[in-house]
Amino acid sequence: MNRNKRHFVAASVGLASLRTATGSAHSAAPAKAFVGPTLLTISGAITQPNRGALDPAIDQMMGKHGIQFANAHALDAAALQRMPAITIKPTLEYDGKPHTLQGPLLTTVLAAAGVAAASPVQLVLRAVDGYNVTISLADAQAYRMMVATHIDGQPMALGGLGPQWAVYDADALPAFKDKPLKERFALCPWGLYHIEVKKA
User: Fold this and answer.
1) Could you read off the pLDDT of 3-31 as tens digits, one per residue?
2) CA angle, corner 54, sides to 51 and 58, nearest 5?
């Protein structure tokens, strides 16, 4: 069982970068060289793909989560770091303390895949453990939801809250600030690795 688990992790984390960098025989999307492994994949109603269809042999984690796409937009750490970042300092449910989170707005990340800010779409945000939430792009904008890549000045680690966390400053939002701390972040999957853009 442990060996199978290691194979699953190797396929989903290691080989996904190889798949993204080299493309596949049935991919119509343009090939693109990446500095590092893909950390975030955006599929669905996008207009700027940079990789081809999901490969069930290589994209093991996405396949196991039932994700399918004909093309997608893949982002590595360098691509995310080039995007303008914002900083928030919400109180987190895990220790009841404020922490500094940094990263680009979710709308900025989606724009890289060709999703216009005014698009009437729904977003399915999926974490590495399979947890997923659906939120409208309009609500994500209203909440100034971000894709956090750093916490307290350090890159978010896989196995912690990373590699990315879709999150907002719940302390500053009327819809969440008066809720019990453990109920404020239900729309915020940590370990974010895939976003599906669905037409409303």
Assistant:
1) 443 333 333 443 333 333 333 333 444 44
2) 100
What is the C-alpha separation between 113 and 111, in angstroms, rounded?
5
Cα(189)–Cα(91) distance, rounded to whole angstroms? 16
How far apart are alpha carbons 158 and 190 in whole angstroms? Answer: 10
Report d(CA 190, CA 132) in Å as an integer.
10
Burial class of residue 96 in the structure, from the number of CB atoms within 10 Å of its CB (0-12 exposed, 13-18 middle, 19+ buried):
exposed
Residue scoring higher pLDDT (74 or 1): 74
- Picking from 88, 50, 55, 51, the residue whose alpha carbon sits closest to that of residue 172 is 88
Reported as a single tens digit per residue, the pLDDT across 60-113 is 999 999 999 999 999 999 999 999 999 999 999 999 999 999 999 999 999 999
CA dihedral angle for residue 22, residue 51, residue 68, residue 148, rounded to 10 degrees: 110
The DSSP H or E segment spanning 73 is strand 72-76
Of 108, 105, 113, the C-alpha closest to 32 is 113
Residue 157 φ/ψ, nearest 5 degrees? -95, 145
Q: Is the pLDDT of residue 122 over 70?
A: yes
HSE-CB for 186 with a 13 A CA cutoff:
9
What gap in Å lies between CA 71 and CA 83, rounded to an integer?
Answer: 22
